Amino acid sequence: MNKFISLLLVTVILAACANKNDVGYKNDANSQNNKPITVQDSNIQSVKRKSGQQISKHLVELTTSVPDVKDATAVVIGKYAFVGIDIDADVERSQVGSIKYSVAEALQHDPYGAEAIVIADPDLFARLKEISKDIQRGEPVQGIMNELSDISGRLMPEIPKSLKQTDPENAPDEPKKKMNKGKEKQLKEEQKDQTYDKID
Fold first, then answer.
1. CATH number for the domain that contains residue 107
2. What average pLDDT does this structure show over 76-85?
3. Does the global pTM surpass 0.70?
């Protein structure tokens, strides 16, 4: 038994140390191109790495190119960005939402703006402008992060990445089926009983 285990162990070690020739290379003697076989990615996007300030400038230029946007400011933290827009004074309030949506669409197709939060509120725009100046002056990051979290908590943003194209073909033909009257009555009674149990 001991010899069998020793023989098995030696066989496994020799098999593990064996030189395997099939590793994805063309090992033909006549082959001039002995490179590994790799998978080609057909959707390569070369994105140059930029600093947060360079990305902010780029997003501001992109945003101000949208009609009716008078001024813009951007604050970039990692892969996320806050983009504040100042809209022309002669634009009606009812058009602000569509302008925000246009800005979000413009940012959606940009690799740096896909995760941007678009803000059209004048007060928040002023706060973002101050935060941008604080960053340029080298203020502490913790205070800036607290300010940005307050801003993001105050609003329901238009985020470019989450814009979805509606497809009427995928819409349901009929509304969802309702519960029959008997089951609905039974459910209400159970809920009523459970409510009274919690009160006592």
1. 3.30.70.1350
2. 84
3. no
